[in-house]
Write a structure and sequence with these properties.
This protein has 3 helices and 19 strands. It is mainly β. It folds into 3 domains: 38 residues, no CATH class; 80 residues, Immunoglobulin-like (Sandwich), CATH 2.60.40.1590; 167 residues, Glucose Permease (Domain IIA). Strands 10, 12, 13, 14, 16, 18 and 19 form a 7-stranded antiparallel beta sheet that branches. Strands 1-4-3 form a 3-stranded antiparallel beta sheet. A 3-stranded antiparallel beta sheet has the order 2-5-6, with no helix packed on it. The structure holds zinc ion. Zinc ion binds next to loops.
Length: 293
């Protein structure tokens, strides 16, 4: 509620920063007030599977922000106002959370910035797939474990932060299921929650890059099928799965809207569609927060 924001919050960034550091609970109110003026991307949603936007105030150079386990966070903005974007894991416990911020100007000073994770409950989805994609053979299990270790390395990519708008283009046309975060039961057995957005499209439909990116991985994986990973910078990554065809190579630079692959039904699927995961600080977050719909 805007009338509850003290006037001093709007009277300058330096004042606001001191206040925010002293009263961390006001960070989300400040973000709300700014969102009311114009939409920012990604939209803030401080829930498990969402993105928190933390106002870090002014600084001559980009502050460094660290999340859990010292994982670097994406910091965007300019000298007038920096913002840390924090990907919140689907497994996060609602309540207070902290990030650590090191400001370039103030040398080694570490500030704790607190924010509150609100609860969000996700529905359960029951799916039927080929039995061999749920009860894995010893050989498939070994393959999956190798692939999981490789994926962890890919997810840790942290290159120069992106400049400009983080509003994304949908990677393929088609009906988007609101299935991010659903708790999944395959053939009656509980598995990890759904970590991306599924877009229904026929095999062969073009998949494009949602933002400028560098292709950092391409392969054919047990669960994900033919897959491409895109690095948008600063730990913001996209993963496109179940592709029928991959038309880019690792190391290639692509622009927003540029064709990279085609929709398919490879890996663990019930039919052709694009599975799109968006990662921030090694955490899968809801891709819908980056789309204008
Ligand atoms: Zn999916």
């Amino acid at each position: 509620m805007p009338e509850l924001i003290p006037k001093t919050l709007c009277s300058g960034h330096a004042t606001r920063r001191r206040l925010l550091l002293a009263l961390p609970g006001l960070v989300s109110l400040s973000a709300w007030a700014r969102n009311a003026e114009h939409t920012v991307w990604p939209r803030a949603s401080a829930v498990p599977g969402g993105v928190a936007r933390l106002d870090l105030g002014p600084a001559a150079s980009r502050p460094q922000a660290l999340g859990d386990d010292d994982v670097p966070l994406l910091v965007v903005g300019d000298a007038i106002s920096w913002t840390a974007l924090v990907g919140i894991p689907l497994s996060a416990t609602p309540g207070e959370a902290l990030v650590r911020v090191r400001s370039g100007e103030e040398g080694r000073t570490l500030d704790n910035v607190a924010y509150t994770i609100a609860p969000k409950s996700y529905r359960t989805q029951r799916l039927k797939v080929a039995p061999g994609k749920v009860d894995l053979s010893a050989q498939d299990l070994a393959r999956h474990e190798r692939e999981r270790a490789h994926q962890k390395e890919v997810m840790a990519t942290f290159s120069a932060p992106p400049s400009g708008d983080l509003k994304m283009q949908a990677p393929t046309p088609g009906r988007r299921s609101g299935s991010f975060g659903l708790r999944r039961v395959f053939n009656g057995q509980s598995r990890n929650p759904h970590s991306g957005m599924d877009i229904a499209a026929a095999t062969g439909t073009s998949v494009v890059s949602p933002l400028p990116a560098t292709v950092i991985d391409a392969g054919d994986y047990f669960f994900n099928g033919r897959t491409v990973w895109l690095d948008h910078g600063g730990g913001l990554l996209s993963m496109m799965c179940h592709l029928s065809r991959i038309d880019v190579r690792v190391g290639e630079r692509v622009q927003t809207g540029q064709h990279i692959a085609a929709v398919g039904a490879t890996g663990r699927v019930t039919g052709p569609h694009l599975h799109w995961t968006v990662c921030l600080n090694r955490t899968a977050v809801d891709p819908a927060l980056f789309l204008d719909v």
